């Protein structure tokens, strides 16, 4: 059973999210939070598999809450109406395991939670394209990583990192590179360890910043 905390300041929206998630037989909503402070408290106490986190909330925003949960083993899936702005990049760099827009279909939301719970990370395809376009238009920011950091990767790991940067799932990477999903998962784990990254999403951002192809 996948245990989830839902953090959303709008009561009606929060109730809708809870209803969607609890319609899945393998998901249990263990707590609800109306702001980031409550989300952090519930997550630290209950240690759920996933926190579904809104970005803009009172008392403590989703970025700060996500950063405070880093290292707890709790994966954060960001859900917001906003596309590309400082909140998106801030949330992903804070260690969020995924990012989705609120116009996502119910079934896609459930599958995204399952994907994050499996440790794969999740960026909505539309968001991935926007991220790539943003980096292409503006170039690396002042905090961009040195390209030398990926020298420790094998050629195959670089290929996998490039696919992660495109937002591909393990299954899609396996098909493209003609390898098994198990091998793909192993490569992703090694990439995160070698590059000292907290999440697959951070690996995707790094791949985009460095133009890994």
UniProtKB/TrEMBL annotation:
Q: Which PROSITE patterns match?
A: HTH_LUXR_2, RESPONSE_REGULATORY
Keyword annotations of the record: DNA-binding, Phosphoprotein, Transcription, Transcription regulation
Q: Which segments constitute the HTH luxR-type domain?
A: 146-211
Tell me which residues make up the Response regulatory domain. Answer: 3-117
Q: Does the keyword rRNA-binding apply?
A: no
Q: Which GO terms describe its biological process?
A: phosphorelay signal transduction system; regulation of DNA-templated transcription
One Gene Ontology molecular-function label: DNA binding
Q: Which residues carry this modification: 4-aspartylphosphate?
A: 54
State the protein's name: LuxR family two component transcriptional regulator
Q: Which organism is it from?
A: Actinorugispora endophytica
């Amino acid at each position: 059973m996948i245990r989830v905390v839902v953090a959303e300041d709008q009561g009606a929206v929060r109730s809708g999210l809870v209803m969607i998630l609890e319609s899945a037989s393998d998901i249990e909503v263990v707590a609800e939070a109306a702001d980031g402070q409550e989300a952090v408290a519930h997550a630290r106490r209950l240690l759920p598999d996933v926190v579904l986190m809104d970005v803009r909330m009172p008392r403590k925003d989703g970025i700060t809450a996500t950063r405070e949960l880093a290292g707890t083993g709790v994966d954060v899936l960001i859900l917001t109406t906003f596309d590309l702005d400082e909140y998106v990049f801030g949330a992903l760099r804070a260690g969020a395991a995924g990012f989705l827009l609120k116009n996502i279909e119910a079934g896609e939301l459930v599958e995204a939670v399952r994907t994050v719970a499996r440790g794969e990370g999740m960026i909505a395809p539309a968001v991935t394209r926007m991220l790539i376009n943003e980096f292409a238009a503006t170039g690396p920011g002042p905090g961009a990583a040195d390209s030398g950091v990926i020298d420790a990767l094998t050629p195959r790991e670089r290929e996998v990192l490039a696919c992660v940067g495109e937002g591909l799932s393990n299954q899609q990477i396996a098909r493209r590179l003609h390898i098994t999903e198990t091998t793909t998962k192993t490569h992703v784990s090694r990439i995160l360890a070698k590059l000292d990254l907290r999440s697959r999403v951070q690996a995707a951002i790094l791949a985009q910043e460095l133009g890994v192809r």
